[in-house]
Recover the amino acids of this structure.
């Protein structure tokens, strides 16, 4: 197999991680602070509308592709016996899985569901703690996504150098 074939999933992973990093960063730096400034009814209505938007094919491909392709990159590097490259891609993949995918499943999506069930005319008294929890979860995802994008970009730039590095094997001395 042509060694350049390994570059395809690595580039896809890097591009998807970068785009998703941009989405999360824009939300964290612009939308979330704006939502902190509005009253409870406006916040609820905005979140209910915003939470409908990610439920489309484009966002699904972006989100799940950014989760999948680092694992594919690790697997293909391992298959080509590039253990060091595979290990680094696996680290990126696992950090992304835990800090973005898992945080979304455990924190942000349950809060989305809670907010979708709110009546803007009769909000729960602790609506601000839900708002703050959602913003904190999104901040975790943003920072994690940024770290994964930087890691993936570094791996793509240094791919030839990393693949050429010798693999040290510990041997037992008698």
């Amino acid at each position: 197999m042509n060694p350049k074939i390994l570059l395809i999933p690595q580039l896809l992973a890097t591009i998807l991680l970068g785009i998703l990093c941009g989405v999360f960063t824009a939300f964290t730096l612009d939308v979330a602070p704006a939502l902190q400034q509005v009253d409870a009814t406006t916040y609820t209505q905005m979140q209910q509308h915003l939470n409908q938007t990610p439920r489309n094919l484009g966002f699904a491909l972006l989100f799940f592709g950014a989760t999948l392709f680092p694992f594919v990159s690790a697997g293909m590097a391992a298959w080509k016996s590039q253990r060091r490259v595979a290990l680094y891609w696996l680290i990126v993949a696992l950090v992304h899985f835990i800090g973005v995918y898992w945080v979304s499943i455990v924190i942000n999506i349950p809060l989305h569901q809670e907010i979708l069930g709110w009546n803007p005319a009769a909000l729960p008294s602790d609506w601000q703690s839900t708002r703050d929890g959602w913003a904190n979860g999104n901040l975790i995802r943003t920072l994690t996504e940024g770290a994964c994008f930087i890691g993936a970009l570094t791996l793509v730039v240094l791919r030839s150098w990393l693949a050429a590095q010798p693999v040290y094997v510990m041997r037992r001395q008698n």
